Amino acid sequence: MTAHTAGCAEPAELEIADSWGDCVWGCPGHVEETILNVRSVFIASGELGGLAA
C-alpha cells in the first residue's frame, strides 16, 4: 500500500491502514486519493486503539 508518493513535497500528516494491518503515512492529498481508490483502507488512529479496537 502506498499513500505518500515518492517526490511529494507535502508533509506526511495522516496514517492510513488496511484490513491486513499494513500502515503508511501520507500527505492529506495522497491519503484522500488512496481512500477513494482502494477498498478497505481507513484512517488509523492511535487514540481509538488503532487496529486493536
Give a structural overview.
Helices cover 19% and strands 23% of the residues. With 53 residues, it is an alpha+beta fold.
Q: Which features does this protein show?
A:
53 residues, alpha+beta, 1 helix, 19% helix, 23% strand
Produce the secondary structure layout.
Blueprint: E1 14-18, E2 23-26, H1 28-37, E3 41-43
Antiparallel strand pairs: 1-2, 1-3
Radius of gyration from the CA trace? 11 Å
Quantity of strands, as a count = 3
Can you give the helix content as a percent range? 10-25%
Shape: globular
CA distance, first residue to last residue: 21 Å
What is the SS-derived class?
A: alpha+beta
Q: Mean pLDDT, rounded to whole units?
A: 81
Please trace the helix and strand order, writing H or E for each element: EEHE
Low-confidence stretches: none
Strand order of the largest sheet: 2-1-3
How many helices? The count is 1
Strand content: 15-25%
Biggest sheet architecture: 3 strands, antiparallel
Number of domains: 1
In short:
The chain has 53 residues and is an alpha+beta fold. It is built from one helix and three strands, in the order ββαβ.
